[in-house]
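Q: Two folds, back to back.
A: First:
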Amino acid sequence: MLPPIKKVKNPILDLPTAWQTVIFRNYGYVRTERIAEVLGCDVATVDAEAKRLGLDYIDYSAEFESRGYITVIRNNWYLLPYGQLEQILGFDESKLDFVLEKDDFLSTKLGGFKPECDEVRYAPLNDEQIAVTESLAHTVASYRAQNPARPFDFFSDSPEQTGMVIEASGKRIVHGYLSPCGDVFVSDCSDTLPEALLEKYRESGVNGIWLHGVLSSLSPYPFVPELSRDYQLRRENLNKIIARCKKYGIKVYLYMNEPRALPAEADPKYDSLIGWKAIRTLCMEKQEVREYLYEAVRDLCASAKDLGGIFTITMSENPTHCNFAPNTDCPTCKHISPEISAATVNNIMWQAMKDSGCEGELIANLWGWSSYMGWSDEQIFHGIEMLDPDISVLCVSEYDLDIEKGGVKSRIIDYSISNPGPSETSRKMMTKAREAGHTVYAKIQASNSWECSAVPYIPVFDLVHEHLENLSAIGVEDYFLTWTQGGYPSPSVELAGEYKKGFDLDKWYEKKYGDNAEIVHDGIKRISRAFREYPFSVQALYLSPKTLGSANMWELEPEEKSSSMVCYSFDDYEAWITPYPYEVYVSQMEKLLSLWQQGIDILASARKNDSIDELLRFARASRLHFKTDLLQTRFSRAKREGDEAQMRLCVEEEKSTAAELLELMRLDARIGYEASNHYFYTERDLIEKIVRMEVLSKLLKG
């Protein structure tokens, strides 16, 4: 079911007409024929109006339709109604519904509702509109670039073997840098796991890749058989991927939240299997549910015997049993302790894997086995004891880590490079698991995190090294190095691949950066120190403007909308600065930016080569994302207080921030991209932001 339509105050548009905005945001990213169909005009008209807007230099990029559709959805969400959105994407309603629900909670990221939008149709411009358009086109022309990097142009067609291969001392597993998070196995992923990327992984010490797997699309699903249509094709593609990765010494792992809740379209005869009625969980105390889970996993693994393994999360967003969250209303499971339900799911899946003849691992991610979900230490330890000893255990290293920033104490749940773990909670869990005979993995973020996911890696190698040292001291040797973000084969991944006891960080810098080693290390130390000042919180990770960066559009009038997860940020700065007082949040960001710039200045003094240029680009881009976070926080507060002088300052700084980010993005197609969100922004988004800042500047000057 598509998200409900809600009438809200839609963003102001700076182009004279909505149909021009449709062309501006989509020209070159979707087929011109589709834009014409949406607007009710012909292709020649679209081309002519694009030229009038200064977009005649744009070439069509087919990759956005197959690999950048989330960007297209996000850029039209507040612009087009459902019908026209489907037209411009080339989706029918069922496909749009699938993408919004299954593509890593895209619907939630977009706010959980669809803004009400009027249909947008072409109409000839009047003289006044033409004059305004010509003025805007002049701004577009002034920001045109010669031969900018082409979106999605990340890797060459054929792998370049350097001969420098890292043999990791343990497991080093990442999410595929280009891998989708929806219907992954509908193709053989030759475009999202190209040979060049696999070669770079091999050279970086990566020996495992994890991909999203939905059991109903990979095995027969008796409750809604249509969901299993083409499951054999998906299995064939899975085996092709496994075979290709095997050539590079890389195993493939499936991430599964199973069994999923019973879909609403299931035959009512299966309602007796539901436990938690409101959420329609399949009750694990029902024998039919256990048999389904066992048979589906066994059948899948029997068809993919070279699978590296399956890793599970049993206390996450997808309800996999009736106790996946506190206060279940299942009449049976409300009398069962949640660790029993969670361990049961893992044990059934592991037994199915063993019986299938597959030699892969079952890795139980213990995310959510914690006080965050209402568990006591006794329940956590009992759950670990209940797991079959041959099941491996994965812990988020920094989970529940106590931190203090600017005198404000708080705790981390996940996704932090700026605060190296492990926490005392994770330390105890990993120790308990090892004592119970389990292989233990630590999940860390090596390259980037939701702290700043729009760059391939945040250059803070010293913090990554510190985290590895801390984990090595308690005997951890196997790592998941990413979530969906962070899969680029970066220097941070190489460092983790090469890391083992006795590792010498200075020698690593010498090996990696040669004569520049000392300067680079000094610069990275300063940037790492800066990152420690980041006012970390879950709210800042998910809601602050630093995710979309300068692609967030500002307005002078108060906005009534709430910021959404790793997507839009509006005016509700109180949401993203929590638990920090405004003054503390701003002060911490100012410290971060000052120290970060010092690190950039040191790096800039190094002798230039490709490695140094790359470091500088990603260091600058990261800082710009943090800078726009600070500026939008100040702007939102100033707007609330009617401080026009402060608003003017923020607008001028943000204009230059957007222009600098645009320059960097045009140099490097990797900037702005992340697997589960595609491009957070396009060059057009940043130009639109610059135009907006010019408009606001004039309005504020009266």
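A: Second:
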Amino acid sequence: MSDTNLPPNLATPDEQRYTNRLSQETSPYLLQHAHNPVDWYAWGPEAFARAKAEDKPVLLSIGYAACHWCHVMAHESFENERIATIMNLHYVCIKVDREERPDIDALYMDAVQALTGSGGWPMTVWLTPEGLPFFAGTYFPPEDRPGYAIPAFPTLLLRLAQFYKTRRAEVDAQAEEFRAFYEKRGSLALPGLRNLPIAASEVDLSVLTTAERNLERAFDVTQGGFGGAPKFPPAMELEFLLRMHLRETQHPVRLNRIQLAGTKANAPELTPLSIVTRTLDKMAAGGIYDHLGGGFHRYATDDHWLVPHFEKMLYDNALLARVYLHAYQVTGKERYARICRETLDYVRRDMTSPEGGFYATQDADSEGQEGKFYVWRPDEIAAVLDHDDADLCMAVYGVTPQGNFEGSGASVLHLTRPVAEVAAARGISAEEAERRLADARMALFAARSRRVWPGTDDKIVTAWNGLMLRAFAEAAAVFDSHTYMEVATNNAAFLLNTLRTKDGRLLRTARAGKAHISAFLEDYACLALGLLATYEATFDARWFVAARELADQMIALFADDAEGGFFDTASDHEQLVGRPREITDNATPSGNSAAAEVLLWLAALTGERGYRARAETLLLKLAPLMAQSPRGFGNFLCDLDRWLAPSQEIAIIGDLEEPETEDLISIARARYRPNSVIACAAPDDLLANEAIALLAGRPSIAGLSTAYVCTNFTCKLPVTDPDELEEQLGDR
């Protein structure tokens, strides 16, 4: 494998005659541009001071290391001396890594979407010296192209520079419109919300069932997932539907359902679980899943999960590992456990630093070509495997002379037919075929490892590490895996030791021994979630204590006591043109939905109603939007389900090394219980009994390991027998 610390697309020795300010940065994305002829600044007061002094507009370029089209625009325009000369002459140029600065990214993505109707990366925004946008877009080609509506980048640079000089009143008017827009954007007083007479008694299960119906309407009954191409893995929506499955199996809800396989009268009807399993099965069979190395690519460019956009993001794999884990708990199907394990094993192998942090992304490109590392031609497979195994492998994984990837003759591996069907056609058993395919995958993985690897963005992002920490911790508990437990605890310790200042403030990112940038709401909330999951996997109270400390800091620094909810930036954060507040769940849970989940979890463990009240205020305000637009509120819907569900707290008193205690813990973990919390401690564990109210005042009975179950603030009698605990939990 190539050096994971080497960012992709570094300049050649000849190109390194240019060195700009970005050479002093730690972000791999910024370092990719350190030898551009563009006179780049990193975001900061120096750039804006120069823009004001010289009365020049600011050209802001935002992207990230694994972004294919960011690389394309960099090569076409930012490495081009003629275009760079125009940029340097007329603008002060700023480059931002969106993964380091989600606050800046969110603010100016609003401008791109307002001006163009869509958004994406690379993001290109023209600003006044005060930081207000007056023009914006995404990718711009280096020259005019027939049939391409977007103007050439140098043409646009010259036009907008002239526009700024000669029509300043129009520039200022546009900028002031955005100033007013940002003032409203920072408020929870969104259009329509103030006029909705929402009270606690009116937010009931109908919000959840309406959201479920709207997801059903958007569901692709043939290929799984929601909507058409491009198709993104909908992990949070699937988590919500697993919760709805649990509700409907415990308390059936009658809905007017459509049928899963079309309009045939005898076709099975669509249910929350069938949506989940069809989507998970289709994704796991498609090219979006890496069948050799494990883990998921960012999204599929088609509607049937075949050809992916090949970058791998830490957060996608964290969210998907969890939903496959939960599907395994619900269905008992080993195939979901296998995908979860393979995804986590990929992260453990390729995306984990020696110190225990998780890397941010792996690039889509290698040797300047997207997907080259991952695709296969028949002759390449034949060079690795013998004839019969090569034939079997190509039949199962859809490798043909014609190929399926951009007319290259290469194929993205995907499962075309059930293995048993392919085996039967060749006169072998399914078991033999599976064994030979497992050996073939190992051989092909070894051969692929000798190729030029995609670059790895090896910075550590706190929020995304929190999501992956949670996935490892939950998998450690479900699979009783010491390996996953060790990964989780190493990561938790690394984050708390490395990503905090001496006064306890959290930082956003670390790389090459340097941690910097004040953390955002999502960093506090996602890390707290990961630590709470680590507590429930290990029952080591230090993780709970750290999570609660972060949550209390989060409230102090980010809470909006006037309207409820949280801002994305801390009260003492750098002042931008607006204070961002994201409420929708996108590729990751919004900081607000993650915060609400932390508060509900802590309320159950501590009994502190103040935590629950803060979450409640936010959930009540956003419930109407969740019902109507569930695809933008997947994690929020999970929060709402948790808030509406009967609370269930399980406290176990006993020595963790004793088999009797382990038996009670196993019963508590045996089922999918998304709305339960579990605490456990030995009777003499003073830290746990003092820190976690759920454990306080609960003695062991007759010196035996003892379980206490409380539901809706009513406690059952303590039990020492696993069968009795199983009955109290409703598993019998």
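Q: And?
A: The chain is about 45% helix and 10% strand.
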